[in-house]
Amino acid sequence: MHLDNWANKAKQMGYRSRAVFKLEEILNKIKFKKSFKNVLDIGSAPGGWSQYIIKNFPKSKVYAVDILDMEPIEGVFFFKESIEEIDSIGPINNLKRKFNLVISDIAPNLSGIDAVDSENVYMLNKLSLKIANDYLDLGGLLVMKTFQNNMLRSLRKDMELSFNIVQTYKPAASKKQSGEIYLFGAK
Ligand SMILES: C[S@@+](CC[C@H](N)C(=O)[O-])C[C@H]1O[C@@H](n2cnc3c(N)ncnc32)[C@H](O)[C@@H]1O
C-alpha cells in the first residue's frame, strides 16, 4: 500500500498516526493473543500507539511518556517527561517489573550528521532497553524502533543478553528509505 493510503486509513480509523499499522503488524506477526494488563508507551506522542493498545486491548492500563504534549486519550495516563527521568514518575515507578509490554517508538531530532544521529539513536535505544529490563515482568514483551546503522548489531547483541527471543521487523507501513527497523524481544 502507498504511504499516503496508510495515512488515510489511519485518519479514517480515528488514529493520530500511521505508525499504528507498524505496531499492529508486529503484534500480529508474533501472534500475541493474551491481553496486556500494564503497557508502557515511551516516546508516545502524538498517541497513535497508545490509541491502538486501548482500542484492541481495552482492559489494559497504558502509561505514556513523551517530552512533547499529547492530547488526552481515555484510559491512558500521560506524563510529559523525558524517558531519562522515568524513575521519577511515581505511578510508573510503582509498577517496576509489573509491565507486560513496553513499546518504544522514540526517535531523536535528527541533526543530519550521520555519526551524531546514530549515536543519539543508540543512546535512546540503550535507555529504552534499560527501562524495559527494569519495568517488564517475567514473560514481558518489548517492541522498539531503531535504525539500520552501524550500531544495530551491537544493540541487538545487548538485547539478546536480557531477552529470550529477539527478532527484527521491517513493517510494510514503514518507509523503505527511512532506514527504521523494529526490534521485538520476549523475556
Ligand atoms: C515517532 S514519534 C512517536 C509516534 C507514536 N508512536 C505514535 O504512534 O503516535 C517519536 C517520539 O519520541 C519522542 N522523544 C524523543 N526523545 C524523547 C525522550 N528523551 N523522552 C521522551 N520522548 C522522546 C518525540 O518527542 C516523539 O514524539
Could you provide a short overview of the structure?
This protein is an alpha/beta fold. The chain is built from 6 helices and 7 strands. The chain has one domain: Rossmann fold.
Task: Describe it.
There is one protein chain. The chain is an alpha/beta fold. The chain has one domain: 3-Layer(aba) Sandwich (Rossmann fold). The chain has six helices and seven strands, in the order ααβαββαβαβαββ. Strands 3-2-1-4-5-7-6 form a seven-stranded mixed beta sheet, with helices on both faces. Strand 1, helix 3 and strand 2 form a beta-alpha-beta unit. Helix 5 runs parallel beside helix 6. The longest helix has 22 residues. It is globular and about 40 Å long. The model has no long low-confidence stretch (mean pLDDT 93). S-adenosylmethionine binds next to helix 3 and strand 2.
